[in-house]
Amino acid sequence: MRKRGLIILALLILGGAAYLGVRLLHPPVSDSQQIVNQILLAAKAASTHQPRTLLSIIADDYNDGLYTKPDLVNLARGGLAPGGRDLRVVPYLKSLDLHGKTATTSLEAEITTMPGNETGRYQITVEWRKGPQGWQVIRAHGWEGTQGLGN
After folding, report:
1. pLDDT digit string (tens) for 106-133?
2. Kind and range of the H or E element at 74?
3. Which of 5, 23, 123, 138 is 20 to 30 Å apart from 71, CA to CA?
4. CA torsion 13→16→22→23, rounded to 10°?
């Protein structure tokens, strides 16, 4: 009986040590870093013709006064279709303000179309909300002029 208790105690200690080791090697990501990761994911998705990935960070109830999520779905599918123009998107985060489960970012995005190397710089303000799918965009302004780039 005593041997069984020692085995259980040893397993608990090993399990706890493994859990602590994993937590030390992979600490939880802060809300700020999660938002930065979403921005980088969006830039990469636009550059690599992945509209589904880009749209995954857009909340279903997105509404900026001009566009809703279904509008963005149509724009992304048309503008990022494989075989379409290639884009290089470089985001520069200027500010990030967290307010509990909401946040606002201000960023500058440099977008270059290829071929042709036409470049545009856009001052974009993004409002975020943290929900079950993580941080998602609920409103954005300043990106609208990107539609005419390279045309």
Report:
1. 999 888 887 777 888 889 999 999 999 8
2. helix 69-79
3. 123
4. -140
Q: Are 139 and 127 in contact (CB under 8 A)?
A: yes
Give the closest residue to 123 by CA, choosing from 151, 97, 95, 150.
Answer: 95
HSE-CB at 139 with a 13 A cutoff on CA atoms is: 8
Tally Cβ neighbours within 10 Å of residue 106.
15
Residue found under tokens 């992304």: 76
141 touches 48 (CB < 8 A):
no
- Output the pTM of the full model: 0.77
Q: Give the sign of the dihedral formed by CA 72, CA 78, CA 79, CA 82.
A: positive
Using the predicted structure, report yes or no on whether residue 142 has a pLDDT greater than 80: yes
